[in-house]
Design a protein that fits this description.
Layout (H helix, E strand, L loop, with lengths): L5 H6 L7 E6 L5 E9 L3 H4 L1 E6 L2 E6 L16 E4 L2 E5 L3 H9 L5 H5 L14 E9 L2 E12 L2 E13 L5 E6 L16 E4 L4 H11 L5 E10 L5 E7 L3
Antiparallel strand pairs: 1-2, 1-10, 2-12, 3-4, 5-6, 6-7, 7-8, 8-9, 10-11, 12-13
């Protein structure tokens, strides 16, 4: 698979929607993830990321302007032991609760499908990172309508064992801007993951469309001991 230029991918797409990146740093010592949200409506843009425990939660920047919290207020990131869960909706909780009962990532998502926001039927994208005894693997999932037909849910899971240093995968909700918004197609995109967390965060944030970007979360986890560093960037300050 061709490695794509992540900066170029973001700069040339005004509305990828919400995106998850998971991979391994170039020096092979860090498990890396990033999650960003974008918005076109006032309700979607009126958000920030806030730390909650070992994870994060979306919050209304101006609570007085919040109209419908159902699909925009959720915990995108939660940590369950040696697993870090990253998703674009409240399926984070579904995965957390299922894995706590020894269910697999795929089994947890069987009870969920794409979002009920026709005509877009926004895909649910999810990822889980598993770090144990110095080893690291991750998986990603997308649940999407069948080409805009809500009668059928197409489920795809991609698993990456012993990922290569400097490589990661990028999945996002929408192929591009449109009306209705077309769902992401194909398998997650192969992208480079650098060692420098600050530079990676800056590149991602600066590459997202200025009008539509809302918030960005980046985390680098030490594979050796599970300690981590987090960065959050919110357009609303």
């Amino acid at each position: 698979m061709e490695m794509l230029n992540l900066e170029k991918e973001l700069q040339e797409n005004s509305y990828p929607g919400r995106g998850i990146i998971i991979g391994k740093s170039a020096d092979g010592t860090k498990a890396v993830t990033a999650y960003f949200i974008m918005g076109r409506s006032e309700n979607s843009r009126n958000r920030i990321f806030a730390e909650e425990g070992e994870g994060i939660r979306t919050q209304a920047f101006d609570p007085s302007k919040l109209t419908d919290p159902s699909l925009i207020i959720y915990a995108p990131v939660r940590v369950l032991g040696n697993k870090t869960i990253v998703t674009n909706g409240d399926q984070t909780d579904t995965i957390y609760e299922g894995m706590d009962k020894q269910m697999t990532f795929e089994q947890c998502l069987r009870s969920r499908e794409f979002e009920p926001d026709g005509p877009n039927y926004t895909p649910r994208i999810s990822g889980v990172m598993h770090i144990e005894n110095g080893s690291y693997n991750y998986a990603m999932s997308i649940l999407k309508s069948n080409n805009g037909n809500p009668q059928s849910c197409n489920r795809y899971t991609f698993a990456y064992e012993n990922p290569a240093a400097g490589e990661g995968h990028f999945i996002h909700t929408y192929k591009c801007d449109g009306n209705p918004l077309p769902s992401f197609e194909g398998e997650p995109k192969l992208v480079a993951i650098p060692d420098d967390m600050d530079a990676f965060t800056e590149t991602l944030w600066n590459s997202l469309n200025e009008d539509n970007k809302v918030s960005l979360f980046v985390r680098y986890i030490n594979i050796a001991d599970g300690t981590y560093e987090t960065k959050i960037v919110n357009k609303n300050q």
